[in-house]
Amino acid sequence: MSNDNATAPRHVAIIMDGNNRFAKKNQLDKGDGHREGKNVLDPIVEYCREINIKALTVFAFSSENWNRPQQEVDLLMHLLDETIREQIPRMEKFQIALRFIGDRSRLSADLCALMQDAEQQTAHNTAMTLTIAVSYGGMWDIAQAAQKIAVEVKEQQLQPEQIDSDLFSRYVSLGDLPAVDLLIRTGGDYRLSNFLLWQAAYAELYFTQTLWPEFTTTEFSHAINVFMGRERRFGKTSEQIQYEKIEKQ
């Protein structure tokens, strides 16, 4: 049951975990788990669009995933290529901008070109933003933001005393989008795994035992309802939050 005055999340992030365990559970080849997981994303994206969520960010491949067996890495890169090609016409249909975050220096030139092309083709869409995190890590993200700021300080475009959390937020990935309101992790683990550490600082967390290939729009809707049933205080007391709600009425 959601709060009467609760608002739906503007930005949802998902750690899509459990593909390999799904394959093992169903006696499939390891790669089949990733293929099944790839097919789950479309209905989730469409549901987000339907309920007017403005941003969805999904964790497709982490900085640490480069340590996986090369055969699995190659498959994941191939599936990412397929996904991007399939998504471009769907993004046009639903007026969704497709973006990517992460360290592209380790990606192939062909994949980087495809990602850039997809971003340019869909940049004019304003109904929603779908961001796919590839070769991404939250600590990398914060470090690259610090590097950019350091360069601007060195070139005297910024003064050190100008640096605060608001300014820093403009240099991390997704700085132009709302902060993450709800972060969902499938697959039964209870950790952030270096995902959107800055952007999800005040996010509500939803963990589920459901493996990603089995995650449905029904459970996604339940996660939204759980979010709306929580009181987000941002350091304030419950009494302050209730008083502010009364004042707005």
UniProtKB/TrEMBL annotation:
It catalyses: 8 isopentenyl diphosphate + (2E,6E)-farnesyl diphosphate = di-trans,octa-cis-undecaprenyl diphosphate + 8 diphosphate. Keywords: Cell shape, Cell wall biogenesis/degradation, Magnesium, Metal-binding, Peptidoglycan synthesis, Transferase. InterPro entries: UPP_synth-like (IPR001441), UPP_synth-like_CS (IPR018520), UPP_synth-like_sf (IPR036424). One of its GO terms (cellular component) is cytosol. Its cofactor is Mg(2+). Substrate binds at residues 18-22, 30, 34, 62-64, 66, 68, 185, 191-193. The active site is at residues 17, 65. Mg(2+) binds at residues 17, 204. One of its GO terms (molecular function) is magnesium ion binding. Pfam families: Prenyltransf. Gene3D superfamilies: Decaprenyl diphosphate synthase-like. Its EC number is 2.5.1.31. Binds 2 magnesium ions per subunit. GO terms for biological process: cell wall organization; peptidoglycan biosynthetic process; polyprenol biosynthetic process; regulation of cell shape. It comes from the Bacteria. Belongs to the UPP synthase family. Catalyzes the sequential condensation of isopentenyl diphosphate (IPP) with (2E,6E)-farnesyl diphosphate (E,E-FPP) to yield (2Z,6Z,10Z,14Z,18Z,22Z,26Z,30Z,34E,38E)-undecaprenyl diphosphate (di-trans,octa-cis-UPP). UPP is the precursor of glycosyl carrier lipid in the biosynthesis of bacterial cell wall polysaccharide components such as peptidoglycan and lipopolysaccharide. Homodimer. This is Ditrans,polycis-undecaprenyl-diphosphate synthase ((2E,6E)-farnesyl-diphosphate specific). It comes from Acinetobacter rudis CIP 110305.
